[in-house]
Amino acid sequence: MNKLKIIKTSEMNNLSKVFIAELEDGRLIEFVESVQPPRTINEKWVLIISTLAGCPVKCLMCDAGHYFKGKLSGEEMIAQIEYLVKDKFPSGKVETDMLKIQFARLGEPSMNINVIDVLKWLPSRFIGVNILPSISSIAPKGFDLFFERLISVRQNTYRYKDFQMQFSIHTTDVEKRNKIIPVKKMSFEEIAVIGEKMYREGFRKIALNFALMKDSPLDVNVLSKYFSPDIFMVKITPVNPTYSKLRNEIESFFNAYEEDKNYLIDEIRSAGYDVILSIGEKDENLVGSNCGQFIVSHLNNEYKLCDGYTRV
Question: How far is CA 226 from the centre of its chain?
């Protein structure tokens, strides 16, 4: 098993804890454990691990895109999970009603085929535990093999288990989506096909994630054209405080359009979609554990944000 050298941690009131670790070859990664109030750790425990050492995508609002040192091995991903388990449950036996494992701290998971092996490993490691794997992807072009194998894992290893699949598209405007996520990506038609193959009736729907920004529209007509509300749901989140957000002068939809926010959600629901408005704990911004945040980027930045990373 690969060993991790913890070089720094950031923690907030038992809400979340971020670990910065050095791999055996000197690369830096980060991983997180957290709870989601009002649930306690005995009800739901969330682990968020890195799949890459940094990320090559460079989404406009994400701090992780300015550091990339390649993909992680399956053992390096498993080492993160085992470290978090032993840190919280020294016996190695996890005692919680739900163990959610997100492949979403650093890196686009589809760019690392080793993620598939870890997904296959999880049920044998956590026998008797209600595990919820979570894959969040921007749907980059050219990684068909990953998605083929992911569909197979969903339909076989997790055939009778819940599984969370999320596509982060952020806007229905294709031109603005290309600007926000500056790599070649699958079309909405291609994403819909993958989602339809992954969905299992009776389990949670495929999520379309929108970290909504000012002037980046979410058009319900576009949603309805490509994504069936019987298979897909909509998840709306704020843009968290990051250096990239500041540098690219991004304004979160929530700051600019409080009245329109409620109107938009009602409009999406009227089209038949389930909608989750996912606003995390603000304290998580302070420890740098929210999506888009990367503590290494903060430590290397001379300017310091006033609404994020302040407890690092």
Answer: 23
